[in-house]
Amino acid sequence: MYGATIGKVGILTFPATTNQACCACVEYNGIEQMYLFYFLLSHKEEFIMLGGGGAQPNISKEKIVDTYIPIPPQFEQKRIINAIEQWFALIDTLESAKEDLQTSIAQVKSKILDLAIHGKLVPQDPNDEPAIELLKRINPKFTPCDNAHYENIPEGWTIIAFKETGYEVLNGFAFKSNSYVEKGIKVIRITNVQDGYICDDDPKYYPIGSRNEIEKYMLNENDLLMSLTGNVGRVGFLNKEMLPAALNQRVGCLRGSENLIDKEYLYYYFQSNSFKKDCLDSAKGVAQLNISTEWLKSYEILLPPLCEQKRIVNKINELFKILDNISAEL
């Protein structure tokens, strides 16, 4: 009858007493216990509206006793109870099936990404310029690594260190918490880098007037960011609604030319279970896991021809849209 729990109901299953904050309904003459239970459950909002008081709203026993309740014949009460419980059981089954389907959708997405980064999502096109030839054309000084120890590399693909893709890994600034202000330049921290997106939870700001001090750490729309500490390897694109923003330490910004590797392909590559496993296997630390920017720069990725990268991205987007629509309808 008191506070935020006004109107909550339950059936006691052991001997007990109550204090003044609870009302006990006993001796059910002419009314089934479960019928009364479901009536009170359905009446919760009305009880909340009857609550008075200031910091601790409450209802009195008299208000509960004076509540009118429709009483059908006892046999009909039992039929109502059975019908409610059948519907509740069906709803519970559907909720469980919904959770199972959501899990299955997440697993299907992971499988799609796994197929994509191993050249099994879209067919290879022999007319595509091989990735290694494009790489040599962009950087004539490039020395290919020995791919002999890698098996079943798709036609036209190659394996290169991330630092050879034309992307940089930019480190963040060591912002101090006592420098934060109520409004200003948003500071993107590892807590903002979630699995697949950059969130705006618990925002922190740095003074606009100090922008010159942190100019090289300022971020751009659609920068690809990665968490380097904690849940290592999470990636997401920064949207324009979060600008102006600056990069905090232990968050990496992957920025560079898309002449060799498509940014969306890179994003999906880093979303794959293969990359996440490599991150965890290589991470150091006890209280918090860490990956270094040097490790990331040396990380070897499977690189398809640029045209195939774009076909892969289009196919992933197409399949993910279908799965997202299914998820939204649950």
Short overview:
The protein is an alpha+beta fold. The chain is 37% helix and 12% strand. A hairpin with a 7-residue loop joins strand 7 (224-227) and strand 8.
Account of the protein in words:
The protein has 330 residues and is of the alpha+beta class. Among the domains are: 3-71, no CATH class; 171-224 and 236-249, no CATH class. It has helices at 33-42, 44-50, 61-65, 74-116, 131-138, 263-271, 273-282, 293-298, 306-329; strands at 158-161, 167-170, 185-188, 193-194, 197-198, 205-206, 224-227, 235-237, 245-247, 251-256, 300-303. The strands form 4 sheets. It has a 4-stranded antiparallel sheet. Strand 7 and strand 8 form a beta hairpin. It is elongated, with a radius of gyration of 30 Å. The two termini are 35 Å apart.
Largest sheet report: 4 strands, antiparallel
Oligomer: single chain
How many individual β-strands? 11
Report Rg.
30 Å
Task: Indicate the overall shape.
Answer: elongated
- Based on secondary structure, the structural category is alpha+beta
Give the uncertain stretches in residue-range form: none
Main attributes of the structure:
alpha+beta; 9 helices; 11 strands; elongated
Topology record:
Elements: H1 33-42, H2 44-50, H3 61-65, H4 74-116, H5 131-138, E1 158-161, E2 167-170, E3 185-188, E4 193-194, E5 197-198, E6 205-206, E7 224-227, E8 235-237, E9 245-247, E10 251-256, H6 263-271, H7 273-282, H8 293-298, E11 300-303, H9 306-329
Parallel strand pairs: 3-9
Antiparallel strand pairs: 1-11, 2-10, 3-6, 4-5, 7-8, 7-10
Helix pairs in contact: 4-9
